[in-house]
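Q: Give me the 3D complex with adenosine monophosphate.
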Amino acid sequence: MTTYADRPWLARYDEGVPADVEPEFPSALAMWRATAKAIPERPFLHYFHTTRTVGEVDADSDALAAGLVALGLAPGDRVAVYLQNVPQWAVVMLGVWKAGGIVVPVNPMLRERELQVILADSGASVLVALESLHPVALQVQPSTAVRTLVTTSELDPLGDDDVPGLLAGSSRQRPATALDLQDLIAQHEGDPPPAVPEPGPDDVAFFTYTSGTTGPPKGATNTHRNVVFNAMTYRDWIHLGPDDVILGVAPLFHITGLIGHLAVAALTGAPVVLGFRFDAGTVLELIERWHATFVVGAIPVYIALMEHPDAATRDLSSLTKVYSGGAPVAPAVVDAFERRVGPYIHNAYGLTETTSPSHVGPFGARAPVDPTSGALSVGVPVSNTVVRVVDDEGRDLPVGEVGEIVIAGPQVVPGYWNKPEETAHALPEGELRTGDVGFMDADGWFYLVDRKKDQINAGGYKIWPREVEDVLYGHPAVREAAVVGVPDEYRGETVKAVVSLKAGTELDPDELIAFARERMAAYKYPRIVEVVDELPKTVSGKILRRELR
Ligand code: AMP
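A: Here is the predicted complex, encoded as structure tokens.
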């Protein structure tokens, strides 16, 4: 068992971090209310060139809460949020909590089939979608419990101001079959707060969906305790305060954006800079404009930023607290970023089920590189978190030995929504089996060297081969399919499909790529297709994905 005594870094690198941390607030909402009371006039959201203050966001979310309750939302009901990185995200999140509800983030890249699964599983009764996603939402709605469709536009927060280049193609649509978010807020401005109980630490704040090795996606139930605890982790381990400015490049539907942008902003009062979707040139401009100081995102973001021609001419000197998480980081990229842009990229590790980080490189400390594997350390376990490295029988392994990483701590979710079996399997006695394989060195730094799971990690986006294979099997020429991750310079890994064909059929790989592309989110479809006579199999006939890799 790894104990505090085994972790000399605690004193060495970060004496300011208390070893025992109890959440300071009973809920993420209480955390926000404290900020709203203390600094209502401060900026909270910068979106392109516009700004909303803490007080404005608080008032809008009050009105939205009243509106949601008037529409019939009851405590514990789920509201799905199908948006890009727009200011409305924060308003909806706070409004849902104020109405006693649970937020279900949905990746706006998901297509009909994928959206349907999440809506049906979560039982969401309200869906807040971008206007441009309204057709998808409308098509899926009849097979779900969604009673109310609310839409909003990425142009709304801009008012009558200039439209930034990135949104030049957007137009206002106001579909007649949905309520408009702005109208809903306006109608309930000044209403008394809904008479619902305040959320407590064990109430669920989010269902965050993660795919499974087999079967449909599972909703991890991040509680308010989980959220408050890891908002504090970001604040304390990265030394964030109200004078920081958070560059919101991680998607807000993912746990990194939810906690590393929105929750830590709600806790500290540091504003978040949003720019709809990631575009390197826009992000460089926004760093300069708003003097962003802190960023957490996946490594392709940093590659794209440093390779953009504007990186040499923009003033990026405010950006000093830089973190990467979600995908492996090559030490060479850290060096190149430091040389070309300035700041050192710290590594952090976590999962959806750990409500963002379980491990962090303490701010100011340079992570060691394992001489044998060349892996950059993912950090040290954060406060109050116990991490074990175990063998196949679940027995503790000594320092330096490679095994599965299992995590217990206040950021670990209690389980998956309505999935007792999966919960028992992944979280036996509340301890998370990560499926990641690695080791701890004598100083307490952790390294990942492999994965137990077949998951593909394309620059932080997780893809389960099974799901892609299921779609490929829908093509009339495909007899057998296996999907694997192959190295890719920018995304780290990309998706490759190896297929065999039915007798008498022919298949152009590009046709299969186009077939898959139509049926799944853009990050999932295979970029490479190879047609073979036979796929490698075990004696029992199981396809050997590992061999293909
Ligand atoms: P997600 O649930 O999308 O946050 O994905 C969690 C998975 O991302 C982990 O199980 C790891 O496989 C991977 N991951 C997260 N952080 C890192 C990191 N710093 N280095 C390498 N892989 C990471």
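A quick observation: The pocket of adenosine monophosphate is lined by residues 210, 255, 325-328, 347-349, 351-352, 378, 434, 436, 448, 451, 457, 462 (CB under 6 Å).
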